[in-house]
Each structure stands twice: as C-alpha cells, then as structure tokens.
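Example 3.2
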Amino acid sequence: MSLADFFSPISTREFCSGTDFYNSQFGKIIQAYEHTFPDLDSPDNKPQLVILGVEEERGAVNNAGTKKSANAVRKHLYNLYQGDYNVRIADLGNIQAGATIRDTYVALKTVVEELVKQDILPIIIGGGQDLTYAQYTAYEALEQRVELAIIDAKFDLDQDNAENTSLNSNTYLNHIILHQPDYLFNLSNVAYQTYLVSKESLNMYDKLFFSTMRMGMMTGKLDQAEPLIRAADILSFDIGAIRASEAPGNANANPNGLYGDEACQLTRYAGMSDKCSSIGFYEYNPTFDPMGHTGSLVAQMIWCFIDGFYNRKNDAPLIPKSAYIVYRTTLENDDYELVFVKSKKSDRWWMQVPYFGSKSVNERYYWVPCRYEDYQQAVAGDMPDLWWKTHQKLQ
C-alpha cells in the first residue's frame, strides 16, 4: 500500500493571500499534493520535512471543530517566507477521518512509522491531542526506546480508572504509559500549571522517574525547558498550553499559560534538537478563531521549528572529542564520577550517566541533555535530580 492511499489532496490556491505566491514564500517552495503525490524516494529532491493534516476530532474532548485545523493553519503558513537556507518540504495533504477513530489512529501510526524509517520528519497538524497516542505507537516497530515531551497546561491522565479508561484527549497518556511493549524511556510534561494537576498525578510521575516543569519555573527563563525538549524523540504540543489572549482558537483555552513568542521559542528548541524525529500540533480549533490569530501563531510556531531544523548543530556528544569541553566532578562518598560535556558549537550541556549496575572497564553510558545549573549543583556537592532519575531508568 502506498502512503498516497492515506491522503486526500489539497488546493494551494485556497491558501494564497494574493494572486500568486512570491518566489521565497512557502507556498512557492513546498511540494504540495494537489494532483501528484510528492516523491519521497527521489535521491536528488527527497524532502527532509513533511506536513500532514489529520481531519479527526472525535477524541478532542469539548473541542469539536479541530478537524478543520490543518487547512486553517496552511492559510497562514503558505504565506510565510523561508529563512536564509534552502528547504526541502513536502505537504502530503490530509488524512481523512476513518470509519472509526481507531482507523484514524492506525492510518496516522502507519504514515509516521514509514516517514521516520525513511528519515523524513513529519509535522502533524491535528486534531485532538489523543492523536499523540498514534504518533507514539508509530515508534513501536523501530525497536528503540524513545522519549516523549508534552507541552501542555495539564496532565492528560485518568488517575481513578487508569487501566480501563477510554482513549481521548484527556486520557491518552494512560494508554501511552500502559502500552505494551513498553519502549517509553522518559515522559516530560513541560509548562504545566499546578492548579490544573492533581498531587496524585505528580506523585505518579515522580515514582516513574518522569520529568516535569511547571509554568512558574519557566517564567523569564525559558531556556530551563530546553534540555527536556532536546532529549525528546517525539514532541506533542497542545495549543491549550498558550494563554487564551494569545491563542483563543481552543474551546478549552486558559487565561494563563505561554505567550506566543515563548511557544515559538519552544518549537525552535525542538527543531534544533538532533533527536526530534516527529512533532505534532494539536487542539487548535478554527471555530473559535474568527480572526485567524491562533492559526497564524501555529503557522509561526511551525516556521520556528523549521528554522531550528535547518540550524541543527549535529553536536550530540559522540565524536570527535575535540568538539567538546569535558568537566569532571566527584561527590563526597559517592561511587561515581560525574562527567559533563559542553558543545563548542552551541554551548549546550550533557551529563554522562552510567547504566545501572555497570562498573566494568567497558562501562556503558547514557548522555542526557542538562543545564549549566546541573553542573553547578554537582560542583557544590549535590547530586542533580536529573542524574538520579536517569540512573534509575537505566536498569
């Protein structure tokens, strides 16, 4: 079965704000599926990124209308100008809602899986955030452990009925956490608001050694969230994490949350991450966005992700060693030497964590993205919480 079988074509004319696109606008550059499905195997012009919409809203709790989001975003995205780099982007069109919502999940899972295998990064425009489940299960056949970062004002969990809850935008994390086989190495919830999250959910995250960062910790210091996003293979962005005054196009919008420029910066962090291999933008509802402000913001967030992608440094701490500065420190009465590296290209930090129980000469390590503050904490004699959580998961 060809990937084209999953998609319906689009008409770029619907997204043009004038008579035609200018040469440097995305509308002129993107290979869109209008009549011919983009060639994903071309050795000379293979796309590095693809845009795909999902016309599914049945899992979007109290937010009917999200199935129209992809084309609403395209109206703004296609009129943006590319940065100072040559982009190779295709637009595959829209995955139509299946006969059942499970059919839609299977279609999205199949498409994302095939794209990731081909080293093509999908930019998904949903739909409800329950589609994150399909985005995640696409990695099952890749036989590797993955990290998932969720940017959301709340935790989409059902604590009272964890194992028997139906799958929707309020409960999809239950299904990801309980999914078998288990290949989820870490789950991070970024920009959550404490009064929207139960203490039981926070305790559960702590017991599972998952990562969290509340909105208050990021205010005025957004870079604190960068390592969590840099660690993720998969990013899911709930537009409801942005405050209603900046993004009214969501039936569940909150008065507090991220500002528009902060949302753009977070997606640029994701684009710059060498690990990120898929990203989804969910819960945008054009029904509540008559002026198009939210659609324009989502388009700019995608632009920032693309800009980050084309500014990747490829400096994950592997080789050559000359590209890094190594810092070592030993905690008092501790069995392990803590090793940190800083990239000379980007000034980004990583921390070395040994696999659990490994003390052989050929000791194995996991490199976890971290902050300069983690290094400062280690120098002061305190074990960084990030080191301990990662160490516990490496069993």
